Amino acid sequence: MRLxxxxxxxLLLTLSFILGLYPALHTLWxxxxxxxxxxxxxTKIAFRMHxxxxxxLPDYIDERIDSxxxxxxxxxxxxxxxxxxxGAFFFLRATEQLQAxxxxxxxxxxxxxxxxxxxxxxxxxxxxxxxxHAHWVExxxxxxxxxxxxxxxxxxLLGGLSSHHNLTGSExxxxxxxxxxxxxxxxxxxxxxxxxxxxxQQCFPxxxxxxxxxxxxTATSLGExxxxxxxxxxxxxxxxxxxxxxxxxxxxxxxxQTSSTRGCTNNGFALPHIHEINPELAAELYQExxxxxxxxxxxxxxxxEFPEDQVEAPFYFDPDSGPVLFNFGSAATxxxxxxxxxxxxxxxxxxxxxxxxxxxxxxxxxxxxxxSLVGNWDHAPHFPEIVLMAQLAQTSSESREKGPIPAIVxxxxxxxFFIGAILLRRxxxxxKKVFAGSQx
Length: 440
What we know:
440 residues; mainly alpha; 3-stranded antiparallel beta sheet; 18 helices
């Protein structure tokens, strides 16, 4: 009985630290010492997240490859099939961005991301190249899936492997990268409307925009300049939406929009990569996105999943959007953090950055409790953290001012202190009673 009482008291003390005091102090400390979180500039927390993920990813990836579990998955298991490779893509792209920031300002971290993340960089490339992890793509396109005009899988390969080269200097994948790059460019050039499918009769224009950007990036790695090709390819694609925000889905055959524009795809792939290809067009589309998708409530700010002027869906869920609560899209807002930073929008970047701080509930190990809870624990447990790290890795060179701190940040932080103090007091009292009883 005494052991049970001691264990219960220690549990309360542990919870007081993990659920209350540590996350609250972490928020306040970061706000005081890491100005990039409010300005959209380079932020030290992104480097800490990268270090934590770099420690965890190699074992996870090696175990997953060795298990050959990817060959047992069906195409209906979207998170299990897509998220592992998507995570490798995001990790490699973000590491490249963080490395450039560190080289400009080594005070951001104690060591270069390409050094602290060396094992994770190599593991991520192995995952992208693992033939078993193309099983779901083969199910759609057959054994010659690398020759078929599929978009999503091959853009992940190009983006991840070009970043791997830029980080390591390795040219071992150049021949493979060139084959994929030239094949995708030819597919886009020969397509009726400049768009191609991810899977048969499933075309997502935002993914095609990302593919164009990845062809451009891969060409740079290979010593070529495809900037003008990318601008022309993007211009052709944008006719599908009359140079407005691209639709969520369209027909690659007819070029007709089959669903409305949405926050998750705009912020995930369209706006970030249009900015890389055509900054002038990107600036116009970002203003359109603010007008149609940005939401400011009394307590919180964020991005809608569906445009205010077209669809009203205050509560919704699918694998792309994640939970939509009171019109705020979790994916749209999480991915929108990176967009605001890319476009130098310090006002919105600061609001979203501080909200991220308050709602992530970090552990001293660097792991984030809340993002971890929404990961796919069996197949992609680190994916949400990788995506958020990738958003914080984005930044711009524009002048920056501190953005506002929404009320929800203070509400959560004060609540964390309050809960931590209650648990600390009860745990301390319980422990004192046990020892007082033993002395009697």
